[in-house]
Specification:
Elements: E1 47-53, H1 60-71, E2 77-83, H2 91-96, E3 101-103, H3 112-127, E4 130-136, H4 138-151, E5 155-159, H5 169-174, E6 183-186, H6 189-197, E7 205-207, H7 225-229, E8 237-242, H8 251-261, E9 268-273, H9 283-294, E10 301-305, H10 310-313, E11 319-322, H11 331-338, E12 343-346, E13 362-364, H12 369-381, H13 383-400, H14 403-418, H15 421-432
Helix pairs in contact: 3-4, 8-12, 11-13
Length: 433
C-alpha cells in the first residue's frame, strides 16, 4: 500500500449535539426552518420536482436519493430525475418506477459542451414547470444549480453530504456555487459545522439525517449464510467492514488492526464486504488485497465483493467496523446498528451523531490502528457489553434514522421553501411567463 498507516494514540472526545441545527440571518426571510417548526403550507396542485445526481452508481448518496424517490408523496410531487450519465446499478430502480430520467452527458464542467448541456437542462425545467430542483454532490451542484437559476426555478436545494476531504482546493472554491441555492442540505451536523467553517451562511444550511429501510431481523433458519458459504465453523467470530471500497473508507487501517490482533484469536475472521462503486474502479480493492497478503492475513481476511443480501447477513456479523477517514453519515453504519450489530467507528463527520461512545458503540480516532485493534478486542472479550451496545444502537437508529422520517422531513422542507416569500414571487413569475 502506498498510503501511510501510522498509529496514533491521542483521542479527542468532542461532544456532539443532535438537535436544532439552524441559525437564521436576521436580514433574510425564514426560508429554512427545522421540520418540526415549519408553518402550515397549502399547495393546490402537484409540485414539479427534479432530483439531480451525477450517475446511478451504488453509493450512500445515491441510495438516499432513491429512498427519497421511492417514498415521496406522488399526490403532492411530480417527480423527475436528471443526471450526467444514465449508468449504474440504481438506474433500473428509477426507470422501473416510471420516473422520467433525463441525461445531460458532459466530459467537463467548464467547456462549451457543458454550457450547451446546462441550456438544455434549463429548457427542460421551464417546459415541465419544475418548481424545485434538488442537486446532490459536487458535480451535480456545479452543473445543475446555474441551469436552475437560469430557468427561474423557484426553489433550488444543494445537497452537500461530506466534509470535502476528497476535494482539491480548486474544487472547494468551485463548490461555492452552492451558495446560489436557497437551501444547502447536509445529512449531519458535523457537515454543517464544516460548511460554516468554510464560509457558508449558517442560516441557509439545514440538516436532515439519512433514512434507512429497516428490515425485520433475519429468521433463525437464515443465520449461518456466511459460515456455510466460506466453510467456517459455527463458533467463528466475524468482524466486518461493509462499505463501498474507496480510499476515504480507510479499509487499510482495518486490515492493519486485524494484523495487530495477531494469531491470538484463531477463531476470528475479518470480512471486507463491498466493492468499487462501478466497473473499472477496482484499483483500491487490488491494493487492499495485496496489502492484506503482505500482512500475512491471506487465510484470515475474506473479500466478499459486492453483495445484495446484506440485510440477511448482518445479523450473522459479530462486530461491524467503519474505519473511514471522512464521512457525512454512513448508511452502512446505520444499517448495522439497526440490525443490532455492535459497531466501532471513527470519530469523523456525522458519525458521533449516531454512535455515542461506550453506549451505542465505540468511537476511535481515524487512522489509529492501535485504538481500532483495542476496540475490536474489547468487544470480542466482552460479549455482554457488545450485546448491550448493539441493542442500544438499534433503539437509537429506529428512533432517529428511519426512511419514513427522512422523507417526511424533506417533503416538509420542500414545501416550506416553496411557500416562502421569494419562492412565491418567483413561482408567480414563472407561471405567468
Amino acid at each position: 500500500m502506498t498510503r501511510s498507516i501510522t498509529p496514533t494514540t491521542t483521542t479527542t472526545h468532542t461532544p456532539s449535539a443532535f438537535g436544532p441545527v439552524l441559525a437564521r440571518d436576521p436580514h433574510e426571510d425564514s426560508r429554512v426552518a427545522p421540520p418540526q417548526t415549519l408553518a402550515p403550507y397549502r399547495i393546490e396542485q402537484r409540485v414539479g420536482l427534479m432530483q439531480f445526481m451525477t450517475f446511478f452508481y451504488l453509493g450512500g448518496t445515491e441510495r438516499q436519493v432513491m429512498n427519497l424517490a421511492a417514498g415521496v408523496d406522488s399526490t403532492r410531487f411530480d417527480l423527475h430525475m436528471g443526471c450526467n450519465g444514465k449508468v449504474g446499478a440504481l438506474l433500473e430502480e428509477a426507470t422501473s418506477r416510471g420516473i422520467p430520467v433525463q441525461e445531460y452527458a458532459i466530459n467537463s464542467l467548464y467547456n462549451l459542451g457543458a454550457i450547451q448541456a446546462r441550456l438544455r437542462l434549463s429548457r427542460y425545467l421551464r417546459e415541465h414547470n419544475i418548481q424545485i430542483l434538488h442537486a446532490y454532490g459536487f458535480y451535480s451542484n456545479l452543473f445543475a444549480i446555474p441551469a436552475a437559476r437560469l430557468a427561474g426555478v423557484p426553489v433550488v436545494v444543494a445537497a452537500i453530504r461530506d466534509c470535502g476531504e476528497a476535494l482539491t482546493s480548486a474544487q472547494r472554491h468551485s463548490q461555492r456555487v452552492s451558495k446560489l441555492a436557497d437551501c444547502i442540505l447536509a445529512n449531519a451536523d458535523g457537515v454543517r459545522r464544516w460548511l460554516i467553517s468554510e464560509g457558508y451562511p449558517a442560516w441557509k444550511i439545514h440538516v436532515i439525517p439519512n433514512g434507512i429501510v429497516q428490515h425485520k431481523p433475519s429468521p433463525a433458519m437464515e443465520r449461518g449464510i456466511l459460515h456455510r458459504e466460506y466453510g467456517l465453523s459455527p463458533d467463528t467470530k466475524l468482524v466486518a467492514v461493509c462499505s463501498r471500497l474507496t480510499p476515504m473508507k480507510g479499509v487499510e487501517h482495518f486490515l492493519a488492526a486485524a494484523a495487530a490482533l495477531g494469531s491470538t484469536r484463531p477463531n476470528v475472521r475479518f470480512l471486507v464486504i463491498g466493492g468499487p462503486s462501478h466497473i473499472g474502479d477496482g484499483s483500491y480493492k487490488t491494493e487492499l488485497e495485496t496489502f492484506a497478503a503482505s500482512l500475512g492475513l491471506k487465510d484470515r481476511v475474506i473479500f466478499t465483493g459486492f453483495r445484495n443480501d446484506v440485510a440477511r447477513i448482518l445479523p450473522e456479523i459479530d462486530i461491524s467496523v467503519l474505519p473511514s477517514l471522512s464521512e457525512g453519515l454512513s448508511n452502512s453504519l446505520l444499517e448495522a446498528m439497526a440490525a443490532g450489530v455492535p459497531v466501532i467507528a471513527t470519530r469523523v463527520g456525522g458519525t458521533p451523531e449516531a454512535v455515542e461512545d461506550g453506549s451505542t458503540g465505540l468511537l476511535v480516532p481515524p487512522a489509529d490502528v492501535e485504538s481500532l485493534s483495542r476496540g475490536i478486542a474489547f468487544l470480542l472479550d466482552n460479549p455482554q457489553s457488545a450485546k448491550r451496545m448493539g441493542e442500544e444502537g438499534r433503539r437509537r437508529v429506529l428512533a432517529r434514522f428511519s426512511v419514513e422520517k427522512m422523507v417526511r422531513d424533506t417533503e416538509a422542507l420542500y414545501l416550506h421553501l416553496l411557500t416562502s416569500g421569494r419562492a412565491r414571487a418567483a413561482r408567480k413569475e414563472v407561471t405567468a411567463s
